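Hi support team,

I submitted a single chain yesterday and got back a structure, but I'm not sure I'm reading the token output correctly. Could someone confirm the output below corresponds to the sequence I sent? I've pasted both exactly as they appear in my results page.

Thanks,
R.
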Amino acid sequence: MAEAVANVARRINAIVEDGKDSLDLSNCNLISFPDGVFKVLRSVSENIRVVTLADNEMKALSSKFFSTFTQLRELDLRGNVLTKLPDTVAEMKHLTCINLANNSFSIFPDKLTEIATLERINLEGNSITDIPVEKLSAMPALKWINVKSNPLDSNTLSALQSPHNFDIVSGADS
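Hi R., thanks for writing in. Yes, this is the structure output for that exact sequence:
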């Protein structure tokens, strides 16, 4: 455990010292986003564009995360045990890419459809049965969504067969 904490501390210090625009806390055995990180990164959080929290054991992400990292362009949360996102994710005005693959979502995180800048959504390997195809079609920037390896219901699968203004990876056509 002490080694994991030291690893996180080293990565955080490098961002503050080097003024980097990305934060990589993947493979750190995190069960939540460390509260102390908000304090340490307060002065540089506006500069952070990419956050990677992949391959941890995170069950939830707080609203504070999204209100702190307001300039995020890319968020990688793959390989955790997330079941939902806070409603504040909809306030991410610059987010273009979110990776939620291999988590524990059973319901599509509907607030994602309110992010006008979002171009790529990866939800592969979850337990989602239904996706809001009409809402996705109304997203102005959406180019690609991956819902492969989800137990999509027949209505969703047939809705995905219709032409859309974005690419869909569903496994239904493989």
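A quick pointer for reading it: The longest helix spans residues 2-18. Let us know if anything else looks off.

Best,
Support desk
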